[in-house]
Amino acid sequence: MRNLTSLVSILSMGLLLHFCTPKKDNSETALLAALALAASAPNQAAFLDTYSQIAFQNYSDAYADVVAFREKVTAFTSKAPSAAELNEVKTYWRKARRSYLQTEVFRFSKGPIDNPALTGGVELEPLMNAWPLDEGYIDTVILANAVTKQGLIDANAGECNGGTCPDGDTAKNISVGWHAIEYLLWGVDTAGNSTPGSSITNTNFAIANGSGNAAAKRSAYLLYATEILESHLLQLKNAWDPSISDSYVSKFKSNSNSFENVIRGIARLSGGEWGGERMTGVFGGDQEEEHSCFSDNTKADFYYDAKGLENLFYGTYTGTKTINGYGLKNLLGGESSYIEERITTAERFCLNEFYEDTSLNQTCNSSQISSRFDTMIATVNSTQSADYRIFRYDIQPAVQEIAKSLQRSAANFGFSIGDDGLVLQ
């Protein structure tokens, strides 16, 4: 503490001289900048400690939610299920998405979710949340053959049998993860439909058997894919667990580059993935670009992405355990209020499209997007709906402005964020 006090005193004296004497040369300006960075280092450490606590608790909750989902799937695939049981499994998928989506804010920061060097050479994110996917690949390539757990992993982003892909795009050859499971449960959501995908019913499932009839193989696929998702979330939970010796979290907190990596990661998520590819993809009116197009869970996807950023911004998390710590808000100076306002804008989605369990639905107000996301997309090429205008001109620009604000903030910490990985407008 004595060293920090001395450092702040030196910094204050330097600033006083800066304003009371003629302009200094570049070397003195650089010294003042270095002193300012050094003075902020304890605050950065406090933020990284809170970040790591939230990451562990968020992944712990996401894992627990997927365990609960997998338990429902296990029971569901052990018999010929009823329509009510199918609806229940779908509801558990939706509930588990809420905690997982909040973890997306940890992406692109050189952490375990997308750094294969930390997870045995296997990049986990493409095995968990890859999107978009070609449903024809699942139907005509995977389900046409015997279904095994390792086979599903091997088929992810793999080549189609005979070299001919149903959709012609090998990047869409997704066989595992949230969206593959989503397709198995809901099926295709046809354009202009007033409900989520409805082509799949309980009769499409039977006792799980990877080499049985179509219904038995679909059940086996559902079970194996859910077990794979569960195992990957356990890896991530353990990576952030401070009680496990030599886990990633200890390296994260001691790495001098972690703060820069985190700021870059949040900027890339908001300006590239979330507010870029996912949101701008629907501007052409193509329903296939909707992030959760089979279940129509897209509004919840975007809402909980914003919630994940809000967690880190305020340094708080509410789940099975509540965390109150040091937030990014306390480090960004004048940019804090700018980002805070845009996080609020990014959350303007009314979550009211849950047909399987209507108790999940919220009451909407006029400032939120209340209509179905695919219905909203359908207005792009005609008279744009009020909801589409909220999305196109308020929400999506606000998310991208968060990335731009972080680009500006980075200079105050001695590094620069370029446009690599961003889709800024």
TrEMBL record:
Give compartment(s): Cell envelope
- Source species, domain of life: Bacteria
Q: Does the keyword Cell membrane apply?
A: no
- Signal is among the record's keywords: yes
Q: Signal peptide: which range, if any? A: 1-45
What UniProt keywords are attached to this protein's entry? Signal
Q: Which InterPro entries match?
A: Imelysin-like, Imelysin_sf
Chain ranges of the Imelysin-like domain:
56-345
Protein's name according to its UniProt entry: Imelysin
